[in-house]
Amino acid sequence: MKWINKGHEFDEVGKRFENLKRIYLYGAGLYGKQAADMLRGVGAEFVFVDRAESLQGTIEGIKVILPEELKIIQGQEIIVLTMGAENAGIVLKQLEMEGLKYGSDIYDVHSFLQFYIYIIALYRYGKCIMTDCTVMGTYQCSLKCKYCMAAIPYLQESKQVEYADFKRDVDILFENVDFVLEFGIGGGEMFLCKNLEQYIEYVMKNYSSHIWNCSILTNGTILPNEKVIETLKKYKLNVVVSRYSGVPNWHEKYKKLETLLQEHHIPVSTIDYENWVDMGWTQKQYKKNVGGLFDMCGMQCRIVKNGKLNYCLHGMIANEALYHLDLSEDEFDLCVQQDRKKFKLVEYHLGFLNKGCLEMCHYCNGYVNINQNTIPVAQQMTAEEYVQFHRKGR
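^ thats the sequence. predicted structure below, dont judge the formating
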């Protein structure tokens, strides 16, 4: 979307929530807990509504009431239907028959989590929140994925981010953003990051109250050292492994990692893929009129580098590897003081840009929700392909 009224794009919507005092999450299952995680970060008052007898009382300190007890004050309280679509339709009908209106008194969980919660946080509580944000720790990787979403194997020099630079960007991020649901120390392969325990320690010691979850993402091929393991245990962090089963000897390496983590009682989970998509970076084909592509993509991949927030981590790194374009117009400079800065920052996070799209969108096929160019998972560059590319240079 193209900025038209910078700093005021959501003023009309924000007026709905100026007097909001309480939010009812109708359904205490998975969606309800996701909404609760965000609302805790906002500091909003909320209550669960659920019919299940086993859930009555409190869940993680949050009150649970029966549907029969639900009576809202219109204009001061709202209901979010945090349940499956089929049941939500039935409940919505019942609530509308009681005189409540969808879009003013009632919201579905998807539009709430993808949009309205940011508006409530900003206009009611004066807070800027993000679903996801990353600060890079290293560009080094143990694999050479031919279709890496961030084109990392094509970087002329893959190096670690200096600890001082990492700290600076983390500080700048949390000087401007009040709460991040999922914070990532980015890579590359994170277990190649020298002194990774220091990077983790700095984030968790200083900003754990601003983060709901900090996980370490790995490709499963490298074992963490003893200091990293102790730091993961200290802060009860999860390790998330991308399942790259097509990579030679991957299963054997993953089993060693899984065994090591389990021995130290560190939670480990996997992300499973049926396939990847080709983002199109190496084709270098310019596409016109990509504003619609950007609006549909909706990828959660914000990253802070050198004090600037970049909307798309993958596009930023692919540019460093292959294009070397000036992307300054696509960045949000967190170090510049300006009027209604938080309002502009939330607008940027929700997809408002000076040109209505990113420069790198012109070279991108889009994320998995809109990209049909499927490819095998983690297909590796051959040694010859890797040497040939870097011999030619960029």
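Residues 129-392 form a domain with the TIM Barrel fold (CATH 3.20.20.70).
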